[in-house]
Amino acid sequence: MRITQVRNATVLIEFAGLMEFAGLRVLVDPMLGAKGSQPGFLGVRRNPLVDLPVPLDDLVHPDVVVVTHTHPDHWDAAAAALLPRDVPMLVQHAGDRQILLDAGFEDVTVLNPSHIVSGTTFTRTGGQHGSDETLAARPGLGEVMGVVIGRPGERTVYIAGDTVLTGAVEDAVSTHRPDVIVLNTGEAVLPGLDPILMGADDVVSVNALAPAATLVAVHMEALDHCTVTRAHVRETAAAHGISGVVLVPEDGETLEV
Predict the structure, then answer these.
(1) Residue ranges of the Metallo-beta-lactamase domain (predicted)?
(2) Where do the structural domains in the chain lie, given as residue ranges?
(3) Beta strands in the chain (DSSP E)
(4) Are 188 and 156 spatial neighbours (Cβ–Cβ below 8 Å)?
């Protein structure tokens, strides 16, 4: 399995071929626009803050696309314009399905709770895009999901998505026992609200839940409202003696898992 950290929450997961099935390229939460192509969340700098480090041609021919939610840093106008109309798309609910159908995509499935593509099972998990207090103040943050990807002969991958550390994450870890956990750890903050994503300390907490799993920290240094850096995650992991199981890839870096 190869995991490429593209930028922000955009990840490309490549599975090798099986006897019965060809290899599978899974694109997660595609934000494909150029640097500065959309307004910032804080109203000062424009997002994304950095260029796309991977050639577009390497990203726009996936076998399946997972959209955990349709906030613009996970699904942008460039992705809607560039991805093939017939690529299978997996989403969290009917509202996001309609957004993709309206954009011209033909094969959009709501994970409720699972769907199989080319021998690979995608299972929806829960999440919460902020504390109870934050969601009460900003109900427009909307629902989010995580996804567990299971494929025969491969390690199980859990993509937690845009969530704080909640019981839903703990349930996903205990139920699915993933070998690899991808965490969005930028600890994004909107004015006057609690963080709406996990941060460096949450990496330590998730390691305690799944000490044998490899943790991959993403969703950093690409948006104006993310406060945690890669260096912060690496330093925190080192301070707790877990650097060996915490991977913090740079944009464009590919991990061999």
Answers:
(1) 25-220
(2) 2-256
(3) 2-7, 10-15, 24-28, 64-66, 89-91, 108-110, 114-117, 120-125, 146-150, 157-159, 180-184, 214-218, 246-247, 254-256
(4) no
* Integer Cα distance of 147 and 157 in angstroms: 8
CA distances from 32 to 76, 88, 133 (A): 7, 18, 32
2-256 under CATH 1.25.40.10, yes or no:
no
pLDDT digits (tens, 9 = 90+) for 81-116: 999 999 999 999 999 999 999 999 999 999 999 999
Amino acid sitting at position 252: G
Token code pair at residue 196: 């709406």
pLDDT in tens, 170-195: 999 999 999 999 999 999 999 999 99
Question: Cα 48 from chain centroid?
Answer: 16
Could you tell me the pTM of the whole model?
A: 0.96
Give me the DSSP letters along 98-122. Answer: HHHHHTT-S-EEE-SSEEEETTEEE
Using CA atoms, how far apart are residues 54 and 252, in angstroms rounded to an integer? 6
d(CA 206, CA 215): 8
Element (H, E) at 96: helix 94-102
DSSP codes joined into one string, 216-246: EEES-SSSTTB---HHHHHHHHHHTT-GGGE
Q: Alpha-carbon distance 138 to 68, whole Å?
A: 19
Burial (CB < 10 A; 0-12, 13-18, 19+), residue 28, is: buried
